[in-house]
Amino acid sequence: MNTTLLKAWKAGLRFVATCFNEVGFLVVRKLLWRFRRPRYFILLGPPGSGKGTLATKLAPALRVRAMSTGDVFRREKAEQTNFGKQVTAHLADGTLVPDALTLAIVRRELTRPRYWFGAMEDGFPRTQEQATQFDALLASWGASVETVVLLDVDDDDLIDRLSNRRTCTNRACGRTYNLKYGPPVKAGICDVCSAALAQRDDDVPHVVAARLRTYRVETKPLCNYYQDRKVLASFHPTGDMTAQEVFVLVKTALQG
Ligand SMILES: [Zn+2]
Questions:
Q1: CA pair distance 186, 95, nearest whole angstrom
Q2: In this structure, what DSSP letter does residue 186 have?
Q3: pLDDT digits over 42-57, tens only?
Q4: What is the C-alpha to C-alpha distance for residues 212 and 80, in angstroms, rounded to an integer?
């Protein structure tokens, strides 16, 4: 009984928060966007391209917040919200999360105060259909996607980087190392928590190659779509560039 009450209480709080966000966002859109335009960016890049790291550096430099759709989905599932339950059901069936559901989650997320003046999307949109719907959503707010940053890293560099990646087996820690570019102090041992390091199943070279093929098939139509709309900015960082160098390269281009 107590857990049922607690759940109802939490759901109630979430409902109130959502109402507050919607009203606040409406006021911000109608009044404050005149003085400070919202900026929306999208990051595209293959697994291992350093996209997530770039997002955390680039977003503050452009005065927006980074939004990782993967993190949002995980949070919704962990909190067992309505959205979270629907996502879990689709994943359990092995069916794709429908575009409409993804869009609804992103839309709700963008009304939260931290994203009131823009966002940098990482992991969304995934399909051209999502891109079209996202453009329509922003247009209904009187906004638009400013730039789509594509990190176009060569497959050889990605395979090299991912297959040299080792992850801490302590799941609470989960730190990653690169045997070539950022090895642990003691071979095979995590610097932070001293647990053993291991190679993740999906970082094995032939699995990496398959992941990259899927990525290329998925991303090609998206790139074409944004190229046609003249908002695509392609970058070609080489395998030996550090995260900081990639950040400076992209930031300079976007601000210039
Ligand atoms: Zn560790």
A1: 42
A2: S
A3: 999 988 888 888 998 9
A4: 31
What's the ipTM? 0.98
Q: From ligand 1's centre to the CA of 176, what distance in Å?
A: 8
Domain positions in the chain: 2-23+40-239
Q: Which residue has the tokens 């599932």?
A: 77
Please give the distance, rounded to the nearest whole angstrom, from the Cα atom of residue 240 to the centre of ligand 1: 25
Give the up-direction half-sphere exposure of residue 188: CA atoms within 13 A in the CB hemisphere.
0
For 2-23+40-239, give the CATH class.
alpha beta
Determine the distance separating the centroid of ligand 1 and the alpha carbon of 193, expressed in angstroms: 4
3-state secondary structure of 243: helix
pLDDT in tens, 71-106: 898 888 888 888 999 988 887 777 778 899 999 999
Strand, coil or helix: 42: strand
- Active site residues per annotation: 51, 126, 165, 200, 211
Check residue 1 and give its pLDDT: 59
Closest to 147 (Cα-Cα) out of 252, 43, 222: 43
Distance CA 35, CA 235 (A): 31
Q: What is the pLDDT of residues 195-228, one digit of tens each?
A: 999 998 878 888 888 888 888 898 999 999 999 9
